[in-house]
Amino acid sequence: MKVDLFDFHLPEELIAQVPLQNRTDSRLMVLNKETGEINHEIFKNITEYLREGDCLVLNDTKVLPARLFGIKKDTGAKIEVLLLKQLEGNKWETLVKPAKRVKEGTELDFGDGLLTAVCAETSEHGGRVLDFKYEGIFYEVLDQLGEMPLPPYIKEQLEDRDRYQTVYAREPGSAAAPTAGLHFTEKLLEEIKSKGVHITFITLHVGLGTFRPVNVDDILEHDMHSEYYMVTKETAKVLNEVRKNGGRIITVGTTSTRTLETIASQNDGKFVAGSGWTSIFIYPGYEYKAIDGLITNFHLPKSTLIMLVSALAGRENILHAYNTAVEEKYRFFSFGDAMLII
User: What is residue 14's DSSP assignment?
Assistant: First the structure.
């Protein structure tokens, strides 16, 4: 299956650079996954498409202010560090720029000594394992010194860092936001609950692999990144009951989707509590086992995420929807508009 099958023309001016002032004012394209029929809505009206007994599944991961700016202790040279994954203790897998200046044993300083690090290991493409030292609680130090790691296609500065965080974020660990959730407010979630819709949470810590382009011609040769997930007993119980009672399971975002499909694939379609790493790659031909619908943003051409939504609604339906979105000037990517596939 060729990557070019998932290409479409996207004018650069449609890539949203800043979030809207009000989260629920985003546009919402509603796509019927069976017929390909499209309705144009405002996100705050999503309640009209949800039914009593349905379940909305949200990813409660919290984005770390994971971009750090520091210096080399010996020369004062400026160094940028992006935290990717905690390994053990205070050791983190990171990306460093410029990487050639940071070799094993190099000492780095951030915030005039509030945080220091030693390079413990080097790898290709700027990968470095850093061993950090600090006083107090690491996440509090990070909150003080770090910046939000916005995706590479966003060039504008973010004035309010909370706008790159969902209102229900609570489990620190992501290098990027689960952006489909950025459209929700506490008020809208209450309205959804009052309609008799269950709201439940999973955790999947989003890695930067999400933004990695597919660099092979045949998608079957693509090496999928892995991400850490957690599903609680409470969530598994709610999902199994909703399924048993004929309700629909609607995930918010591709991260929630990948988590539930991983669990269901491993357990004959049932939901069980657990945690681990998922590298599930969903593309057309995949039979969904966990979800009935999906709320998601508009994705990059030729990305694994457009392949995932194509598996749910059909490639032709998705490409038609995307071309319509371009014609109607929908806003794309992290700070862009949303799509409901149902």
Answer: G
